[in-house]
């Protein structure tokens, strides 16, 4: 195991792992601080437990480059529970959760969209949406959650790039898209942190933010 190889780890707690602490920190808005504490405690590489599943956290630049590089893709597999948790919002046939030939197929389908010419055509959209977000933040006099703001900006850029100018002409289009994704992601986090998605029979019941 990774622990026997000297990888530092949070204590193993049967079945639940660190889910209780993760849920508590998320509800307090301190999830980032929690991971910073783990990094201070263990270093740039460590293990923690997401329920019954182990998670290897890597923050070493050279190792990250190896993980995301195409030449080493066959050496890494995405965890099974990731697909279970994200299936309600993105399905299972996509680049983010797939492995092997399915991942290769999805990547080839997406490659044209990320061609230099296409990306260059989106620069004006990215600039416009970013400037709008900056202006909104500068006008705010209350505390700002940058994690939420960056997520909102990302969704705005994606939606504008996909739907073009028509997206901007729709009343409250940005708010509708952001609210929809935020609510779904919140439900996924709620179900995952309570291990609802880990049990097929339980996850099919029409309760707990299904």
Automatic annotation (TrEMBL):
UniProt GO molecular function: heme binding; iron ion binding; monooxygenase activity; oxidoreductase activity, acting on paired donors, with incorporation or reduction of molecular oxygen
Keywords, ordered alphabetically: Heme, Iron, Membrane, Metal-binding, Oxidoreductase, Transmembrane, Transmembrane helix
Gene3D superfamilies per the UniProt record, alphabetical: Cytochrome P450
Localization in the cell: Membrane
Transmembrane segments annotated in the record for this chain: none
Keyword Transmembrane helix included in the entry's annotation: yes
GO terms for cellular component: membrane
InterPro entries hit by this protein: Cyt_P450 (IPR001128), Cyt_P450_sf (IPR036396), Cytochrome_P450_Monooxygen (IPR050665)
The keyword Iron is annotated on this UniProt entry: yes
Pfam families (alphabetical): p450
Source organism, top-level taxon: Eukaryota
Similarity remark: Belongs to the cytochrome P450 family.
Protein name per the record: Cytochrome P450
């Amino acid at each position: 195991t990774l622990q026997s190889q000297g990888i530092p780890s949070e204590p193993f707690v049967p079945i639940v792992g660190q889910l209780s602490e993760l849920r508590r920190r998320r509800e307090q808005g301190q999830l980032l601080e929690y991971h910073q504490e783990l990094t201070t405690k263990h270093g740039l590489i460590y293990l923690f437990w997401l329920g019954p599943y182990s998670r290897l956290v890597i923050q070493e630049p050279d190792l990250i480059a190896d993980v995301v590089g195409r030449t080493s893709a066959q050496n890494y597999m995405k965890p099974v529970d990731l697909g279970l948790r994200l299936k309600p919002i993105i399905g299972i046939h996509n680049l983010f959760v797939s492995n092997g030939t399915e991942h290769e197929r999805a990547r080839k389908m997406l490659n044209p969209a990320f061609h230099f010419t296409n990306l260059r055509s989106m620069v004006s959209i990215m600039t416009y949406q970013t400037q709008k977000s900056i202006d909104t933040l500068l006008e705010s006099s209350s505390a700002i959650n940058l994690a939420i703001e960056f997520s909102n900006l990302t969704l705005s850029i994606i939606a504008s790039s996909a739907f073009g100018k028509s997206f901007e002409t729709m009343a409250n289009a940005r708010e509708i898209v952001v609210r929809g994704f935020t609510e779904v992601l919140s439900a996924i986090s709620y179900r995952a942190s309570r291990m609802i998605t880990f049990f097929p029979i339980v996850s099919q019941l029409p309760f707990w933010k299904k």
